[in-house]
Amino acid sequence: MESEIRKKKPITLDRRRFLRLVGAAATGGTAAAITPVWAGKEEKMDTFSPSARESERGFWRRIGHEFVLDPRTTYMNVGTTGSMPRHVIANFNRYNKLVARDPSEMGGEWGSWPYMSELVARIAPQMGADTHEIVLNRNTTDGMCTVLEGLNLQPGDEVLYTHHEHVAGTSPLHVLQQRFGVTLTKVEIPVLDATEQGYVDAFADAVSPATRLIVFSHITYKTGARLPANRICQEVAVPNGIPTLIDGAHTIGMIDLDFHEMDCDFYAGSGHKWQCGPGATGILYVRDNLNRLRDYWSDRQEVFWPINSSLAEYGFFGLQLQLQYVGNDNYPAKRALADACDMWDSIGRERIENYVLSLSAYCKLRIRQAFGDSVVIYSPDAPELSSGLTAFNPFDDCTDGAAMSEFRDRLREEYGFIVRTTDFHVTLDGPEEHALRISTHLFHDARDVEALVAAMYNLFVDMTG
Ligand SMILES: Cc1ncc(COP(=O)(O)O)c(C=O)c1O
């Protein structure tokens, strides 16, 4: 297959165009009040099919046109960071100008100090949370560090975490180990033979009387496996009185989340990845003012210090405000994040989840059709364990990192597909293996997947002779 390099189109940033495209009136009101453009439409797609009704295809194509991604390439690395929709960029620029014109008052457009309450009130209900439980922070790393460094963990306390965690979690955990003598216990989670019960059992079997915290990624960045977060919280953590901290870098904007239903204690996520907000935006959920944590840790007078706060010593402000206020903030970015969230809400978060999961299922199907059933796909097939991340290795030797790096680089240079690679151990004592990780999101469609798989197959034949 020849690399298809299309001509770059000029980028236009125009919110009116967005509204026209989706059939809503350009009301001329404040940009923050984007009309819920898809509200009331009954189109619904539970599974992705290349022969889906034209209207459904047309709908997602319109969504695709809302992104300014370089048309000379196909961007499939949302797992690292996403791309803002046109109207979000346009608004973001407007917000930045507002702040530049009137730096301290910001045109009175952000409400009263700390200028975040209206934004939190827009986002919290979209994720099954109350407004006093949501903090708009910098990113997942920020949320993980805020929670882990703030918890009153002491020598001999045990923290369970999986062997597929990201450094955003493992780095602050290692600080706890070295600074306070916290015991870290790595739980081996099932990879190639993953089942819901297997994940639940892995945690249940590891719990000990010393366990003070369970940390895991809702979707692992290494293979894209989606862990049964609700069951781990409800069947393992809550009955044992153990708080949970979930790394949700890959769920916000991809999966339709309900934090209350999940019943976790802390959830740290990214606004800039699948939610397609600006860089350095994130969402942190902290359950019910830590009331349950105080019950769990009733042997400790203090359970948590908001160390990353300008208000740490002023508890009367309430925890949300303590965590939210870290000095001057990037108000335009947070507001643009809320705009991106509103767009997702208008489309329907469940509808986005169905689309993303169907597209990744299609991606796995096409990979198997091209490379044969024996190809190693590390991402689980079961819909409830799958995500928009597909990790696989077409080579006979999955431990050959150099081959995988060359595969990734040539896919970009010769075919224009931007993906990344990940490294991990399938089992704790097994060798390091390497995978190509593909992100498929709401701005992709079946043709993108088909073109990617064709490119990968051509390149594979070229590399293996
Ligand atoms: C599982 C996981 N956690 C955390 C992070 C860090 O995310 P952020 O850049 O939002 O801090 C990543 C980034 O790739 C990730 O994959």
Shape: globular
CATH homologous superfamily title of the domain at 106-339: Type I PLP-dependent aspartate aminotransferase-like (Major domain)
Regarding CATH, which class of the domain at 106-339? Answer: Alpha Beta
Bound molecules: pyridoxal-5'-phosphate
Order of helical and strand elements: HHEHHEHEHEHEHEHEEHHHHEEHEEEH
Mean pLDDT: 90
Strand order within the widest beta sheet = 2-8-7-6-5-3-4
Radius of gyration: 22 Å
CATH architectural designation of the domain at 106-339: 3-Layer(aba) Sandwich
Helix content: 25-40%
What is the makeup of the main sheet? 7 strands, mixed
Q: What is the terminal-to-terminal distance? A: 16 Å
Helix count equals 15
> Using DSSP, what is the number of strands?
13
Overview of the molecule:
This protein is of the alpha/beta class and 465 residues long. It has a domain at 106-339: 3-Layer(aba) Sandwich (Aspartate Aminotransferase, domain 2), CATH 3.40.640. It is 38% helix and 13% strand. Strands 2-8-7-6-5-3-4 form a seven-stranded mixed sheet, with helices on both faces. A four-stranded antiparallel sheet has the order 9-10-13-12. A two-stranded parallel sheet has the order 1-11. Strand 5, helix 8 and strand 6 form a beta-alpha-beta unit. The radius of gyration is 22 Å and the shape is globular. The model is unreliable at 1-52 (pLDDT under 50). It binds pyridoxal-5'-phosphate (PLP). The site of pyridoxal-5'-phosphate (PLP) has 12 residues, from helix 5.
